[in-house]
Amino acid sequence: MATLIEDIEAARELVSGHKDSEGDSQTAYAVRRRLKKTAFVDLRSAFLHFGDQLTVQFLRSDKEIDEFAAQWKEMPTAGANVKVSPMRSLRRELDSIELRAKSLRDDATDEMKRCTALLAETESVSTV
């Protein structure tokens, strides 16, 4: 999730000088392609294997990123087709993805701490 959050920050920098508009742009396309799901395959396996309330949150995040990235089209120009994406709601969508990623990161951290404490407790009882 930390890598995804870094990608979101980098994507925001791409549009920092642009106004929100209803049009399509190559910059918006670059932003939508900027988010990578680094280690999501491994995370998906772990969430599905251990399965709990975080699994649903993770799968929603995965789907939201895919839908975000899928919003593009090719626009014919004089030289060649150019890939563009809508600027509208771009920042709002980035905010939503970031909020879900931070929530998932924080919830997973809390769960790992809880598991670690439970294991330590179990270990101390078994050594007595």
What does the model show?
- The structure is a single chain.
- By secondary structure, this protein is mainly alpha-helical.
- It has one domain.
- It has 5 helices and 3 strands; from the N terminus they run αβαααββα.
- Strand 2 and strand 3 form a beta hairpin.
- Helix 1 runs antiparallel to helix 2 and helix 4 packs antiparallel against helix 5.
- The two termini are 39 Å apart.
- The model has no long low-confidence stretch (mean pLDDT 89).
Which key terms come to mind for this protein?
three-stranded antiparallel beta sheet, 9% strand, 128 residues, elongated, single chain, mainly alpha
Put the structure in a nutshell.
The chain is mainly alpha-helical and 128 residues long.
Structural class: mainly alpha
Q: Would you report the number of β strands?
A: 3
Low-confidence parts, pLDDT < 50 over ≥5 residues? none
Helical segment count: 5
Q: Taking all residues together, what is the mean pLDDT?
A: 89
Q: Strand order within the widest sheet? A: 1-3-2
Main pleated sheet:
3 strands, antiparallel
